[in-house]
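User: For my dataset I need records formatted as: sequence, then structure tokens, nothing else. Please produce one.
Assistant:
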Amino acid sequence: MKLRAPHLIGIGLLVLGIVAVLVVQLTGLGRAGGTGFGGLTEVRGVVGSEKAEFFQDPAVREVFAEHGYEVNVSKSGSWRMATLEGVTDHDFAFPASEIAAQNIAKTHPDAVVSQHKPFFSPLAVATFEPIVELLAANGVASKDAQGRWQIDMAAYLELVDDDVRWNQLTGAAGVYDSPRSVMITSTDIRTSNSAGMYLALSAYVLNGNSVIASTAEADANLSLLTKLFVAQGYAGASSTAPFDDYLSQGMGAVPMVFVYEGQFLEEQLKERSRIRDGMVLAYPSPTIFSVHTGVAFSEEGREVMELLETDPRLADLLAEHGFRPQGQNAAAFDEFLEREQLADVYPSATTFVNLAQEPSYEMLDYLLGRIGEAYEVSGAPPVVIETTPEPVDENGDGTDDQPDGGTP
């Protein structure tokens, strides 16, 4: 086919456009200055799996790029983060709780530049309407004044202690006639922060709604605390695993799973959400907050953490991913709920008044150690010890998508 003048002009403009894009990419024109590709400074972090989608979000990456940073992350269980080989070669580590961050700072005191608490997430129970209604009929669950489900943790722990089966509950016939023990599914207590929060919450309730402050108090409740985890059998190493099972396998396999509130909200907001009718979020009573605490190992890591604390656009994006900003942007989450017409589903932070407190790092570490010993006695599979963080797979093809390979 003979090319006409308009075709030639169009091809010429296309070529010029491609050349212009290459010039911008190679010189960094139009972008913030830096030392990385395209004028951006690469900042590497290792994060809890619950935050991976936030850092992969193109809108989040765009905000960081406007400040001159390309932020690439790898995933790790929060509690194991401190012992990862080469963790301090990253610019920051970002576990899901303050106590896990304390563990990192204690393990690597000479490497820490600063610590930051940009946002938090309440812990909750992802479950199903028939399950909470059955628990309500047995005095274990109820609705608050706004119609949100809550689970009485003291009553629940009594069921576990008595080894009550679902089919033994009043009204179970035809609703959930399962011979399995009434038990919340969690992650592996030996690796994951969400399981650590479940342990801290349960220990607080069993100790008369008081923080366990001595080994004597810990030992007095150790049997039931151990049962909560060892009796589950296999448990996933990170917070995404049991929640994925809940979404895919349904009520028969996973009637209740301990999750971060943000996991449920983030999934609910997706265009192709796997949240279906009958899936509900219930809040433990008391509940517990997981304060996501970043540990910076470089000035660049510190600056990224400070952006998470101060940038209003990042605060809005945090809310979209289910996280509750703290500090000067704390209102962003409630404003987001109003825009999405979800204020009647997710409570404002000010409405949480019955909150459990975490024990000290030393007390939680003691409990983790004792429960870990019980795993060994039970014949449960050994914990998978990570030596390097798990690379983030952004496009879902099973490969590491990060330019640097995602590991130190």
